[in-house]
Amino acid sequence: MKVDANDLQTNETDDRGRIYLGTEYANKRVTVAVVEVESDRPDEDELAAAYREASESATSLAEEWDETSDEAWSGLDE
Length: 78
Hints:
By secondary structure, the chain is mainly alpha-helical. The protein has one domain (5-77). The protein has one helix at residues 44-77. The longest helix is centred in the last third of the chain and has 34 residues, at 44-77. The radius of gyration is 27 Å and the shape is rod-shaped.
């Protein structure tokens, strides 16, 4: 089967995965092919990497704050 590139449509699904084709397809037989699927949410690997990065950053910041806090308390003792 040949498909003209001009015949390709991009539609977004609703929250249940349905697509509204339009009234021009009412009472007609329609064949639909899913060519590509894009997610509007990050995948699990991206989320895990972001979480690790944030955790490492928080740990580093806490260590820096601990050193700064110790210096500040030492300065008050003098």
